[in-house]
Amino acid sequence: MQKKSIYLSKFQVNNFNYLKLSLAKLDQGWQDFLLSNCYDELMAIDTKLIEIAKNEIIYPPQNQIFNALKLTSLTNTKVVIIGQDPYHGEGEAMGVAFAVNSGIKLPPSLKNIYKEVALEYNISMDVDGTHLINWAKQGVLLLNASLTVIKDRANSLATIGWHEITDKIIRHISENNFGVVFMLWGAYAQQKAQLIDECKHKILFAPHPSPLSAHRGFFGCNHFRLANEYIQSLGKPTIDWIKL
Length: 244
Prior knowledge:
Helices cover about 40% and strands about 10% of the residues. By secondary structure, it is of the alpha/beta class.
């Protein structure tokens, strides 16, 4: 049965054009979920991206669109942090919410995320934009609601179907995992609380880390320590937020 599932997944992945490179990198768990539950929606997005790419530059690169899922398997997901949109500047987006490639100036929101970690643990966070990959590998799913964007046009591809798919991902985690911490920063992310079973999971709310709102309660939210306290209470290995 498993061999049949793997064969079917490979066959279905080959039906895609724009999304094929990134879909092919996913583990069997995420591939099976997306192809079983989001196939038609993904095919529609694939068609739209092919057309858009004829005239526009799309971020992140094709092979990095599903990087967040590639780095964090469903079974290993301990924390979910929800962003809204990939960065739209050249060379910034890498398929992981809030993260940017090495050599890219840290965006203000990411600076403030690092600042909050530093405040909670009384340390210095002298790291670049790829540090979040270390979090992802430990079980922190950094998921944007929209997985692609047009260069220099924030939120430009939010209406092509991504939100329906990422909502299904959030609901799937809620239904199939236990004891996940959902960090919902800002009004947009907090709308996703309705997708999460609060009896099974921990939801933490705070303002967005953007400079416009960070001083209204993101600084001092203590989310990183609170997440680890909850994870530890369940007997799971905690997240090393400082690990290099």
